Amino acid sequence: MIKLTLKDGSVKEIEQAMPASEIIKGIGMGLYKAACVVKINGEVKDLRTVIDSDCEFEVLTFDSKQGKETFWHTASHLMAQAVKNLYPDAKLGRGPATENGFYYDFQVEKPFAPADLEKIQAEMKRLAKEGYELERFELSHDEAVKLMQEKNEDFKLELIEKHDSKGEKLSFYRQGDFVDLCAGPHIMSVAPIKAVKLTQCTGAYWGKVEDGIQMSRIYGTAYPKASMLEEHLKQMEEAKLRDHNKLGRELDYFTTVDYIGQGLPILLPKGAKVIQTLQRWIEDEEYRRGYQLTKTPFMSKRELYKISGHWDHYRDGMFILGDPDDETKECFALRPMTCPFQYQVFLNRKRSYRDLPMRLGETSTLFRKEDSGEMHGLIRVRQFTISEGHLIIRPEQLEDEFKGCLALAKYCLETIGLAEDVSYRFSQWDPANPNNKYEGTAEQWEEAQGAMKKILDDIGLDYEIGIDEAAFYGPKLDIQIKNVFGKEDTLITIQIDMQIAKKFGMEYVDKDGKMKMPYIIHRTSVGCYERTLALLIEKYAGVLPLWLAPEQVRILPIKPEHNDYAYELAEEMRDLGMRVEVDGEDDNIGPKIKQARFDRVPYMFIIGDNEVKDRTVTVRSRKEGELPAMPVADAIAKLKEEIDTKAK
């Protein structure tokens, strides 16, 4: 008998090996119809997977993250089938699931236009009604090449060579007369894909941008019910109103310029002021917690990155100045991270155990060669600023210092109002990864991951495990967050590194007089400032908390004769450190109030005859509405308390 431990702890027994799909039918046909994928001993598997030994067995439906991904992945195949039916000469690229749906890249003679999406969408609905079942099969290298040559799929041939060189299985899925190279998993048939919406067609590149192989990408989403799709589309319309890429430009937080380059935003005075406020707060808070401020170069010779390992593991993501392969000439690279620079502070002189922990912090400008298709507003850019830090510690200090890093990150998230929006991922290595992605031995990785697991479990942190998401030198805790469209990115990270110190010869004299290698914690406190600004604009729909708002108060004189009092009051408030502007134009008060509301200014001070005579102000709050006239001192005290407490 084979014993299956279900999610509720109950045990189901089967007499012989059988596909997961058949086991689910035995549990209930309703569950089978809803099932998208299964989790076997914690690993997501295709419903076609044969269960032949005792295991933990969990059925995942569309309600789960992995279920949605599987459903949307199958929808991308359905879209590819529709495209091939309508445009037989189209060549297939890739078609993964995304945060809210899927996309597929095609090479076509004429790029797809919005009008084409209606035809493709209609064909998808027709094919879904046919209810084609998906059949998985594997081929040898030669068989796979022959099949794709017959279908004239050049990009699939390239992928076959790539996967085969890694020793990976060459698996395919067939639905009707459509066949695609794919690792899966997939739902059992296309029939559950009841509601489809193709949302966008854009350009894309196959491989690196510089290779210049252009593709046409179609984005879409799909749901088991029309009502679910309608709800999603409604949410997306609401999200557009909060999208920082639109709202941030309308409110003059940032802009981009084509001849400067993609992923290189210009922070306008408002955006720069918010980031300056965040930066000063973080630097002061880190100093209070024992961090020492550093300032290191923006670039280095390649030799530094060779020592750290970034040249081998991160070179494709770096901006390189010079010929990287010409060893006879100097070659520099803009820094993608600060760690190897900050190590030089430790290495500046001989160290003892008394110097540790050494907590180094820096507001670091970094440069990473992001793909053009990945960049979005301020969320993902090629130049960004980060609250970066490295703690050089004795091994016995690891637990306390890691907890301190997490406590700082949580404090920052709670203060800016994002704590409830994040999730935690314990990013681990994949020992089966054939790409030489990781350094160190299995024993070193098990030690580092074991140490992190103990810390996280002791804290009682609720986290997911991300296999093959670790840094090349160690595991990490990634604090994840989604933008208004559901796209997930890492906001803050805390990493354990037991390896790189040895590369740089970083040693300290321990209590016993012997030389020891320190451990290193790589961490951020609030992460990337540009990304944080984007998320704050979306979170608060542009109405930032008073302490962060680039303009905290706008003083609105009703008539020109009230301007002197307005400017006098503004000067008084600026002397107290408040960010105040005066709208002294001759316009009526109505348009002034309307403009201040559009600009999302938290407070308006309205000044008329009575206010000038009584030395008062009438206050309008974005949160509380219009308040009674009050003495200037009371109004300032109210705002100052809100700023000082960093109220949200």
From TrEMBL:
Record flagged with keyword Membrane: no
Catalytic reaction(s) noted: tRNA(Thr) + L-threonine + ATP = L-threonyl-tRNA(Thr) + AMP + diphosphate + H(+)
GO biological process, one term: threonyl-tRNA aminoacylation
Keyword list, A-Z: Aminoacyl-tRNA synthetase, ATP-binding, Cytoplasm, Ligase, Metal-binding, Nucleotide-binding, Protein biosynthesis, RNA-binding, tRNA-binding, Zinc
Domain called Aminoacyl-transfer RNA synthetases class-II family profile: residue spans: 231-545
Domain named TGS: residues: 1-61
Main location, first listed in the record: cytoplasm
E.C. numbers: 6.1.1.3
Ligand binding (Zn(2+)): 339, 390, 522
GO molecular function: ATP binding; catalytic activity, acting on a protein; metal ion binding; threonine-tRNA ligase activity; transferase activity; tRNA binding
Keyword ATP-binding attached: yes
Family: Belongs to the class-II aminoacyl-tRNA synthetase family.
Quaternary state and interactors: Homodimer.
Identification of the protein by name: Threonine--tRNA ligase
Organism encoding this protein: Ruminococcus albus 8
Gene name of this polypeptide: thrS
